Structure formats: C-alpha cells, structure tokens
Amino acid sequence: MVVIGLPLALRKRKKVGPQKREELCQYLKEMGIKVSLAEKGDDKEKIGLSRASGQKSEGTIQLQEQNINFINIISASSQYGTNYFLDHLVKSPNIMGGRTLKKTRLIRKKSPPLWGKVVAIEWKGD
Fold first, then answer.
1. pLDDT digit string (tens) for 32-85?
2. How far apart are CA 59 and CA 41, in angstroms?
3. Closest Cα partner for 21 from 66, 58, 68, 70?
4. Which of 16, 38, 78, 123 is a plausible cystine mate for 60, CB 3.0–4.6 Å?
C-alpha cells in the first residue's frame, strides 16, 4: 500500500491555469458589452506591470464600441494569496487635441484683503 501511495503523493499535480480572464469576459458579455479575449503575448499586456515583484499579466480583453479599448488583467502573487488588478486606458479628447482646455482658478476673498480670514471662495476663468 505504501509503495503505491508514495508515488501518488510525491508526483506533481497539474495546476489548473488562471480562469479570471475568462470569468471577467463572460460576465461582461452577460451585461451586454461586446468583448473578446485577446491573444496572449500582445504588447498591450506590458502596460501597468510595475506594481509588485511577483506580478504577471493574465491577458487582455478587447472591448468594441466603448471608450476603453482593452482591459489588462494583472495578478500579483504573495505569501498571502493572489491579488488581481485591472488596467485600462481611456480615450480622451484632450490628448488627441479635440478641444482646448479652459483656464480656471480659485479666488479666496478675505475680510481684510491682505491678512484676514477667508470668508468666500470664487471660481474665475474662461
């Protein structure tokens, strides 16, 4: 009995790969968002990989017809377990030059103008 049980106990068990990417993709599909799983090894997986030493990218999910192009799923392993993070980039019209930024500033009104207490706050700008 020991001869049969020892090799079974000492052999490496096959680990099941992480299923978080597939779970998130399925959940987003159930919500009505058009998503698809991206291929592993894409350049987009490298975005946001600077949180911790034991982290790796679990893959990306592509979103269609949304303000966000893709979601990168990152796992950070430690002695306490695995934490998952989501990184994404949002399209902004300010970056593309679509509109100009407005200049605003905060004006503090004081009771004596130079050293007094602040009694009101106003926004001034374009």
1. 888 888 887 777 777 666 656 677 878 888 888 887 888 888 887 778 887 878
2. 8
3. 58
4. 38
